[in-house]
Design brief:
The structure holds two protein chains of two kinds. Chain A is mainly alpha-helical. Helices cover 44% and strands 9% of the residues of chain A. In chain A, the strands form three sheets. A three-stranded mixed beta sheet of chain A has the order 6-5-8. A two-stranded antiparallel sheet of chain A has the order 1-2. A two-stranded antiparallel sheet of chain A has the order 3-4. The radius of gyration of chain A is 18 Å and the shape is globular. Chain B has a two-stranded antiparallel ribbon with strand order 2-3. Classes of the chains: A mainly alpha, B mainly alpha. At the A-B interface, helix 1, helix 7, strand 3, helix 10 and strand 7 of A face helix 2, strand 1, strand 2 and helix 6 of B. Strand 7 of chain A pairs antiparallel with strand 1 of chain B, so a sheet runs across the interface.
Chain lengths: 270, 211
């Protein structure tokens, strides 16, 4: 009983926190020199402009822009919106991450075909990138300098968070991998690829604040959904569908753990 | 009468709590149920690949959230299941060809799925290099597992060492319940014959790993 009360208390406390807006970071001192250098010369910047243009353009069968899309702060309000995703949306009655929310708006407001959007969502390496990649980057960039602030308050947000935590540790398949086998300890590598230690605050913060990112070896901007696809591929799992609760749950878990990191996108990845 | 009233009161209180936004974490069983459904909804799998999503008993035990530790009984069960899983090659020989083992140990491919198609290869790689340092001086090696450089030089290649090494690769959890090393033979990622080659690669004095 005491435990249950404890949870309740946490829940109510974080509800109050949820009411506070994401605050622009006071100091940028927590950005390492290397990260700063990468940011100054990041080809991903090109996608930000592309995303901005796409956001305002009238497009799709309904010839509408995305200016009426509500990412959680009200229609068209992008400042700090990505910093609070994933979150619960009443109009769909589900918790959505950035990419899921984009799908919702592009189908509902612009009339695009969902399956078609999904088919094109992840672009080929060295291509000009997909609309969703550019849009996801532009929208997140409007939270640059702000702190990640995933605040669990709706019951479905709690459920997502807990499911994400469970899935992070869930092992299956012929390699017996869960996420934690590769991301549960500091200073580990698979071959020469550094593995982020995501059960540490700093590691989760690195994740929550740097996606979408420019991927140097692919010459395109990549989103979290792409990253998860690649990890489950290495785990020998079947094809991960786009924008499912599995991804949203893991992203809710990781971003929540990574709260208070200062968003700076596009990130720059190997 | 009293009971109904009481229930009503509880229901009202709960509704009030919800209205106030005082949601809470679901309990373990509910979380499991929701998350397991998510797994099967998320992947486009053929019947042949469903097994990659299903957890066997050992995987269930080894999926503890956070820092939760195995109980003694659980650890004992893992070891028992691991022991029972081990199959030996038809030939009975646990010591194969180190040259083939060398190649396999450095091969990290095999059995990955993209767009519904399984990688088309003659056999799966051993994945060892992903996680272990192997021959001296190799740079492109992982460190998820301990270095295996000089493995045979330190241990010799007595029958007991051969048997341990074979069983360790076949099912790592026989000797370390729930470790991060996959049970490569038990999950059928590798065949018993392939494992004998890697045993030889680790133990043979001629193998680069012992140079």
């Amino acid at each position: 009983m005491v435990n249950v009360r404890g949870f309740r208390f946490t829940a109510c406390a974080s509800l109050c926190l949820a009411l506070a807006l994401p605050v622009p970071a006071m100091a940028q001192g927590d950005l390492s020199v290397g990260r700063k250098m990468l940011m100054e010369d990041n080809p991903g910047e090109l996608w930000v402009d592309q995303g901005k243009a796409l956001f305002h353009q009238k497009r799709g069968p309904k010839n509408a822009s995305l200016e009426q899309c509500d990412f959680g702060m009200g229609p068209g309000k992008l400042e700090g919106a990505a910093a609070r995703l994933p979150r619960y949306f009443a109009d769909t009655d589900r918790v959505e991450d950035l990419e899921t929310r984009l799908l919702t708006c592009m189908t509902r407001l612009q009339g695009f075909d969902r399956d078609q959007l999904i088919k094109q969502a992840i672009s080929a390496p060295a291509s000009k990138g997909s609309d969703i990649e550019a849009l996801a980057l532009y929208i997140t960039s409007r939270s640059n300098g702000m702190k990640v602030n995933v605040s669990l308050s709706h019951q479905k947000e709690y459920d997502m968070y807990k499911a994400g935590e469970y899935l992070f540790f869930r092992r299956s398949g012929q390699t017996d991998f869960g996420c934690v086998q590769c991301h549960g300890e500091p200073d580990k590598r698979i071959r020469l690829q550094d593995l982020i230690h995501m059960t540490s605050k700093a590691g989760a913060q690195e994740v929550s604040s740097t996606w979408p990112a420019y991927r140097g070896s692919h010459f395109v901007v990549r989103t979290m959904q792409w990253r998860l696809n690649d990890c489950v591929w290495q785990m020998r799992l079947p094809d991960l569908k786009y924008a499912t609760d599995y991804s949203i749950a893991l992203t809710t878990y990781l971003n929540r753990q990574g709260n208070d990191a200062v968003i700076q996108v596009p990130g720059f990845k190997r | 009468m009293k009971k109904t009233n009481m229930l009503k009161w509880v229901a009202l209180a709960a509704a009030g709590a919800l209205a106030a936004g005082c949601a809470s974490y679901p309990d373990e069983a509910t979380t499991r149920q929701m998350a397991e459904k998510m797994v099967y909804d998320a992947f486009a799998y053929s019947p042949a690949h469903k097994g990659r999503l299903d957890q066997d008993r050992s995987q269930q035990i080894c999926s503890k959230v956070g820092d939760a530790k195995l109980t003694q009984a659980e650890a004992a069960e893992i070891v028992k299941l691991a022991r029972a899983s081990i199959q030996y090659p038809a030939s009975g020989k646990l010591y194969g060809d180190w040259k083939m083992g060398d190649r396999l140990a450095h091969d990290g491919a095999g059995d990955r799925i993209r767009n519904g198609k399984t990688e088309n290869r003659k056999e799966n790689g051993g994945l060892c290099q992903n996680c272990h340092a192997l021959a001296p001086g190799e740079i492109n090696v992982g460190n998820v597992g301990p270095s295996l450089t000089g493995y045979g030089k330190q241990r010799g290649n007595s029958e007991a060492v051969v048997k341990y090494t074979y069983e360790k690769i076949y099912n790592a959890w026989t000797y370390f319940p729930c470790s991060n090393m996959p049970r490569l033979g038990a999950t059928k990622h590798l065949t018993p014959e392939q494992i004998t080659h890697m045993v030889a690669y680790l133990l043979d004095p001629q193998s680069p790993i012992n140079k």
